[in-house]
Design goal:
By secondary structure, this protein is an alpha+beta fold. 37% of the residues lie in helices and 20% in strands. The chain binds adenosine-5'-diphosphate and magnesium ion (MG).
């Protein structure tokens, strides 16, 4: 998954961010912390009334690995035969179904900053994984959470798990196990889903003549990143709306399910539309023509952002961290795609055509070819 999109609370973030909690823990435990702990001490002192302080001290002292798993990560499973607590979880796989499995890791400093709101982080860590199930047309069933963090900070764990549980509940997905260890903050989730035999949507099924579609909105997360970097500036309302989309992406699970048997191929957009579309083209041995005006139209805040068309185009075509679905389907399924969009309450935009010639062309609104050199994100190529 993409790396350059950090999930951050800008300066002045609310009181429940990671830095704040680590600072609190540092104060309560009487230990010295790194630079995250400084700044906001006044608020910390005000917050840590003596009773709270004493309570936290007791909890920090006694909360071991197993207590915290019990407290934050154990709930009776809905589907699993056996959930958290033994050496393995047990899942019954229905006959005629296949297990769809995917794993995504979020590393502090690489995918998010220490100042991220932990509730959003809990949501996002699961959302990016559910997005992979959505891309395969799989129904989420269960997930495993492997978590490393430097200190036990109850408020942080509580907020993180709250964000995670809310999304898990929305998709009836059981947390069935994982691993917990001390270390630099690092979150790895593995999701398991179900899909009927031979019904999974794959990257390799696109055919010449297919329509190409994208769900929802592109470019918001990248817009936020560029504003943080000082490269772009937009009105505050635009920024706040885009930031919610970056912090709390919506995995398109219902759309993925509705596309079973309809779409020829699909992928989720994590590294940028063009880069991820190229994976479909390569796996399917085909090319594509993309209508850039249609792609631009997917950017929710594009019109009100005051940004130049070139910037908007770059954000939507090569942004990343979008967690939308790109998929292809035969032309004679247009009506069915519209119904899938309606039944899943997910906007879908037709943005181009698959071609037999294995080349990706970008077309302007007059059908003329545009030069392009958009790179998608690559963890080892991109600094
Ligand atoms: P083991 O030593 O066999 O690896 P652990 O002692 O690490 O098992 O974990 C005990 C139980 O708690 C196991 O069922 C494991 O799957 C579960 N578990 C550990 N960490 C987490 C976590 N972060 N979220 C959910 N379950 C977890
Ligand atoms: Mg273990």
């Amino acid at each position: 998954m993409v790396v350059h999109h950090v999930v951050v609370n800008p300066v002045g973030a609310g009181g429940n961010d990671v830095a704040h909690f680590f600072a609190q823990a540092g104060k309560v435990g009487g230990q010295q912390r790194g630079s995250n702990a400084v700044g906001g001490h006044d608020r910390i002192v005000a917050f840590c009334a003596p009773v709270v302080e004493a309570l936290l001290e007791v909890m920090l002292e006694f909360m071991g690995e197993f207590d915290l798993i019990e407290t934050y990560f154990k709930r009776p499973p809905r589907h699993a035969v056996l959930g958290v607590g033994d050496d393995c979880a047990l899942l019954a796989v229905k006959s005629g179904q296949q297990l769809a499995i995917s794993s995504d890791m979020l590393v502090e400093g690489r995918h998010f900053l220490s100042t991220v709101n932990p509730e959003y982080l809990g949501h996002k860590a699961l959302a990016v994984n559910l997005s992979d199930l959505a891309a395969c047309g799989a129904q989420p069933k269960a997930f495993l959470l492997s978590l490393a963090f430097p200190e036990v900070v109850p408020q942080w764990l509580s907020a993180f798990s709250k964000g995670m549980w809310a999304l898990a509940d929305a998709h009836h997905c059981d947390l069935i196990g994982g691993d917990t260890t001390r270390g630099p903050l690092n979150i790895c989730i593995t999701v398991l889903g179900e899909v009927p035999q031979a019904m999974a949507l794959l990257r390799s099924g696109a055919k010449a003549g297919d329509d190409i579609y994208v769900s929802g909105h592109l470019g918001d997360a990248r817009l936020v990143l560029e504003v943080f970097r000082g490269a772009l500036s937009v009105p505050k309302a635009v920024f706040e709306a885009a930031r919610m989309r970056m912090d709390k992406p919506t995995p398109r699970v219902e759309l993925g399910l509705a596309l079973r048997g309809l779409a020829h191929s699909a992928i989720d957009v994590s590294d940028g539309l063009l880069g991820d579309l190229q994976h479909i083209l390569k796996a399917s041995g085909v090319g594509a023509e993309i209508d850039t005006q249609q792609v631009l139209s997917t950017m929710a805040c594009g019109q009100s952002s005051g940004l130049k068309p070139d910037d908007l185009l770059r954000l939507t075509l090569a942004g990343g961290d979008d967690y939308e679905l790109v998929f292809t389907a035969p032309e004679n399924q247009r009506q069915a795609i519209a119904s899938a969009s309606a039944s899943s309450a997910t906007q879908v935009t037709r943005i181009g055509k698959i071609t037999a010639h294995p080349h990706l062309s970008l077309l302007d609104n007059n059908g003329r070819s545009l030069p392009h050199s958009f790179e998608s994100f690559d963890h080892f190529k991109t600094p």
